[in-house]
Structure formats: C-alpha cells, structure tokens
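Something for you to look into today, if you have time. What I am after is a single protein written out in full by you. I want to see for myself how the chain folds. Could you add the entry underneath, on a fresh line?
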Amino acid sequence: MYRYWLLFLFCMLFFRIDAGEHYRFRVYLKDKGDSGFRLEKPELFLSEPALERRKKQAIPISESDLPISESYLRILSETGVTPVVQSKWFATVVVESEDSTVVDKLKACPIIDSVRWVWKGISKYPAETVVDTSRLQVEETPLPRKRYGYAERQIHMLNGVKLHQAGFMGENVRVAVIDAGFLHVDRIEAFDSLRLLGTRNVVFPGRSVYVGDDHGTKVLSCLAANLPGVMVGTAPHASYFLIKSEDSDSEYPIEEDFWVAAVEYADSVGVDVISSSLGYFSFDACELSYTHSDLNGKKTLISRAATLAAEKGILLFCSAGNEGNGDWGKITFPADADAVLTVGAVTEKKKRSTFSSFGFTADNRVKPDVVALGTGCCVIGPFGQIRYANGTSFATPVLAGMGICLRQAFPQMTNRELIDLIQRSSSLWKKPDTGIGYGVPDMYKAYKKGRKYVAETK
C-alpha cells in the first residue's frame, strides 16, 4: 500500500509540473499588414541616429524597417495566445499558450503562413529584488606605470595602445552589447564612468538587466572598464546600450528570436557597432538542433538577422564559440554570417586556445575571421574584482573595442570596409587557416591603412 501511495504522489507531482508547462510558437506572417507608417516618413519609426547611420553609408529605408501592424497582433491574441516577442525584419511573432494544440488554430488563421515550435517549459517571471545601491570597489592594488593595469596583455597583443595614443578611444560611437545579463554593472566602481545610453531586457521586458547573469558584466569590462592602473577596456569612451537577450534557464530556438529582437532594437536606436558573445547550435529538444551543413550563413534566423544588421550599416562582432574541443567542434550561429566579424581566441603566445571553435563554414568561407586573447583574459567580475577568464566571449569585446576606435577614426567608411581593413592587417592575411582565420590583427596597422585608403579616395 505504501508503495502505491508513493507512486500516486509521484504521478501527482509529475502532473502538476506538466500541467504548468507552456508552449511558444514562432508564427510566420504572410505580410506585416498596414501599420500606418510609411517609408516616406522614417523619422516616425526610426531614431535620428539610425537614419544618420544609413545616410552616411547610402543605405535606403526598406520595407523590413516598417513595424508589424497592431491589428495583426490583436488578431493573434484573439486566437487565445499571448504575443511574447516579434521581428519586423522577418514578419514573425512568438506567441505563448498553455495548450499545445493551439497550433492548429494558428495555422488556420488567414494572416499566418506557417508555425514553428520554439520553446516549452514552466513560464516564470523573475521576482522583483530589493534594490541594493552599495558600491562594489576593486580591491586590487593599481599597477604603477601601467595605464591598462591587469589588462595590458590583451591590448598590447592587438597593438591597441598606439591606436589609443592616436586619439581614438571610442568617442561618439554608439555601441550595443548583447548578452545574458549585466549583474551589478550599476554598482561596480570600474563602470562609474560608463557612458550609458540605455538598457533593454528582451527576455523579461521592463525588468532590470543588472540582476541574474554576470556574463555580460565580464564582457562589458573588456570594452568599457575605466580604472587606470587596474583595468582599462579597449573602448572606454564609447557610448553603450546594454541589452539582455539570453534566457539562461533553458536552451531553445526562441533564443534566436530574442537575439533578433535585440539587434532590431539596437538598429532602431542607431548603434554603430554591436558586440555579441552569444552563440547557438544545440537545444534542449534535440530534434530542434542544427547540423554542420547549416553553417552557410543563410539557414538560421539568427545568422540571417546578423547579415541584415550588417546590410543596415552596423559593424557586428560575434564570438566564434567555445566548441573547439567538444563534439560539435565548429563555430556556432550566428558566427557563420558572412557580413559579421567572427572572433576566435588565442593564448598569450598567439596559439589557438584549445576551446576556440574551428571554421570554415559549410560553403567554405573563412571563419573565424580573426582572433584576440581569450585564454587568461582580464575581466571584472560581478563583485568588482579582477578575474582571468577563458572564452571567445572575452576575445570578442577586446577586439570589438578596437573596432569601435576604428569606427571613430573613419566615420565615413562602411562596415564592410572596416572589416576588410582588420582582416588585411592580420598576421595570416595571405594564408588563413581553420583555427585562427586571418590571425591576430595589428589595429594600429589597420588605422594606418585606413588613413591611406581615405586619402586615396578623396
């Protein structure tokens, strides 16, 4: 009898968990409907900086820039689902329901082209936390005569000191950092001089980006930390948007939808550069995972979004991934996108870090493009302490910061031209390989090449 009672309790527990499970579906619309906005008046749906970036690079406003009609969102809601996140670029809306069979009703809706399952789980919203405004100070002793402090190695490797000395540290460049969360960035002394333009939580709209995950804290420090003698990042004078797009509790294709929404927001507020240290290939539901043949830059939603962002004039730096010594081995998505600069990791001796993902792409393009220090990279931890971390996640912002400085130096150049400058100034430019691509860039050399190029094209 006791055994049957335990079985009953187990079944009841299982039922309660299953009963609370929600489903999310990506709905592909046949079109976006009439939002009331017109291409002739882009100032009504894009910011002035976004329009200015397009103007500089002679990029026209297109249908993809128009929002999805509010009436379409109401029609979706009337089917009994709740809209979660949307993409105007791809005319998609992710919707949520407790009922998995709602997909049949969605497919019958006249405005819908197709439906794809992208997530299931217990739908939960994080509770509000008590706000702590206490300061988190760095405990490390400043290093004498070392402006960059404990981060000297990662900047010297790229010959970035000379680029800074030439007067370029990111001023007037608008940057979006897309990550999993920025724990305590608002409290850490090393970020007191952070030029913050805004924050966005795509996963939990309206909630703080300064709680939860600290991955973005460490990533941001490589770019924007500014404590001379302790740690100075590669673009400490740039202006930043901090965007959370990663749901750290699970791994489903909805991560792509969140990332796309983050990039669309970054575009709309007029960023010049995006640094993203996120990548995907395998999901909790194995049947949704990708294969190596998908690494062509055109298969996945996230890679197509990265390409479209580049087409809209954004210089995008993306981590190659940390799968080099795992079963997958290859770069992750959206690192396969053609128009982004994919960054791998090397050791202090400029050898590929064992974890750094390999290229090439499925269609035999060079990836990663270039590399930076990713083994023993200096970062600021979530409590303000100096730490040394491994990952292409940190090599990416180290290099992206130098790219931000190049963007400042050559505001008239396109993102494609800047990527070409960086590639051509790298150690393996004439003989790229699958491990480190074109190699380690010399960013001051890239600057000198850029000056020559500008002088010749005047």
About this structure: The CA atoms of residues 56 and 412 lie 7 Å apart. The chain is about 30% helix and 20% strand. The longest helix spans residues 2-19. Residues 1-19 have pLDDT under 50 and may be disordered.
